[in-house]
Amino acid sequence: SYSWWEERFSFEGVKKIDNSRYFLVGYYNNNWPPFYYEDIDLAFMIMDDEMNYYNLQFYGTLDTNEYHTRFDFHTIDTLFIGGYKKVQPGPYDSWVTVYKTNLNGDVLFYKNFGGYGYYYMDALLATPDGGCIAGCRFWDFYENPDSPIYDIVLLKFDSNGGLVTSTQENTPPILISDFSIFPNPGSDCLNINSAKKDLQIRLFDLSGKLVLEKGFEKSVSLNTSQLPKGVYSYQILQNNILLENGKWVKE
């Protein structure tokens, strides 16, 4: 049997697997009780026709909220789960996240986009080619702070997570990333999440001096409290091959 309260799973939907099993889809609250809004993850588990619950899997990033779960699958071992991610409540930047996974919880790919305005996932559809289509909406509250005008964003990913095509209406360019890097701007910490392994983060000041370097597997939280305020550049590498770079601001 399954204890709903102890495992902190909140139900949002159901998908039939076969005549005796179902996927239950929702979100998993890591900090309930006592803190409701601090660390929520996308989640699913399996229920059989005798009301037994098992195989709870949840996906998210440290100290963020990923919820309003969308879920679909083409085969039972090719699953897609997605939603939208926010660091804090209110009219702040949000992201849309998509995970391809399997019954063991192995992340086969992880993609996120957004971060400038409000992004929300409305639908997620698995496709026969092993990929998926994400249907989203976007509100640029920087340009229209008093009027929630939404544009439609459709994204098609292939089986490896590559962006095949996108449709957008008056939105900023869609930048798909294998990494979540937050908060940015930040102060005492810098968090990085990915589905990749054997990674290394390097942080440089404006003079090009290396001020922080750390190896990690999939996720890391860096203590940046000792760094002066300012603009830094970062590099993320895998086996000494550059995968992503960018700017990080400490306030």
| Unreliable residue stretches | none
Based on CA inertia axes, which overall geometry fits? globular
Give the termini distance in whole angstroms.
48 Å
Per DSSP, the total helix count is: 1
- Strand fraction equals over 45%
| Biggest sheet character | 4 strands, antiparallel
| Total tally of structural domains | 2
List the helices and strands in order.
HEEEEEEEEEEEEEEEEEEE
**Alpha-beta content class:** mainly beta
Q: Name the average pLDDT.
A: 85
Strand order of the largest sheet: 1-2-3-4
The whole-angstrom Rg is 19 Å
* Proportion of helical residues: under 10%
Question: Could you tell me the number of beta strands?
Answer: 19
Walk me through this protein's architecture:
The structure is a single chain. The protein is mostly beta strands and 251 residues long. It is built from one helix and 19 strands. It has one helix at residues 4-7, and strands at residues 9-16, 21-29, 40-48, 53-59, 65-75, 78-86, 94-101, 107-114, 118-126, 132-139, 150-157, 163-168, 179-182, 189-194, 199-204, 210-216, 219-223, 230-238, 241-250. The strands form five sheets. Strands 1-2-3-4 form a four-stranded antiparallel sheet. Strands 5-6-7-8 form a four-stranded antiparallel sheet, with no helix packed on it. Strand 3 (40-48) and strand 4 form a beta hairpin. The protein is globular.
